[in-house]
Specification:
The protein is α/β, with parallel strands linked by helices and about 260 residues long. The protein has 9 helices and 10 strands. Strand 6, helix 4 and strand 7 form a beta-alpha-beta unit. Helix 4 (about 115-125) packs parallel to helix 5 (about 140-150), helix 5 packs parallel to helix 6 and helix 7 (about 190-200) packs parallel to helix 9. The longest helix is centred in the C-terminal third of the chain and has 21 residues, at about 220-240. It starts with a strand and ends in a 22-residue tail after the last helix.
Length: about 260
Amino acid sequence: MNQLTIAGTSYPSRLLVGTGKYQDFSATRAAIDASGAAIVTVAIRRMNIGQDASQPNLLDVLPPSQFTILPNTAGCYNADDAVRTLRLARELLDGHPLCKLEVLGDPHSLFPNMPETLKAAATLVKEGFHVMVYCSDDPIQARMLEEIGCVAVMPLASLIGSGMGILNPWNLRLIIDNAKVPVIVDAGVGTASDAAIAMELGCDGVLMNTAIAHANNPLLMASAMKLGVEAGRAAYLAGRMPRKFYSADPSSPTSGLIGA
């Protein structure tokens, strides 16, 4: 199947994964290997990638030579903090421009603050960042982010860490049908069927963390998510049969039956 292309670079997996909530770095690496992900997102405010030389460095376990590190602004509640965080990340990653912007509205729902998100996105794009952006499932604001110059829009399926799956497939389809940049579902995926549904809708990829890290068996769930994304993408490309309510259609031909 064709690869995921973001800002002119192609990646072999359409599953993007986070690095938080694991017992230790070795568990993080094992789960990411099982997922087959090529893009790995890192919360700069919560994970050490060189900010503190006295602490273990995640990049020793997930080296940029093997993975594309996607720094994110988890924990930021205004545009200024988000921009400052990503400027630091770019320094730590030797000028790496790809980033994930998220500006949160409150610590309870973790729903995006869209006015601040739009403000931060405009600043970052002007500074040469390739901005992938966590956003509400509002097709108008998704279009605004694309017009600003974001390289991918990342509407939530449901609240971060909720595992509720895709609650509004209609809005996602509106975003997908109008977007000219990749649409990646971010937040709310709970199990492999959620990932498959996102891909069947036509999403270009799925990003998740909690669904894998908090599974009873994270390695098995990571593998299941990999398969779910692949199956959903294949089904989307194949094109499903039309739904025929109140209309049966036998799988076997009715002509030429034996004994007829």
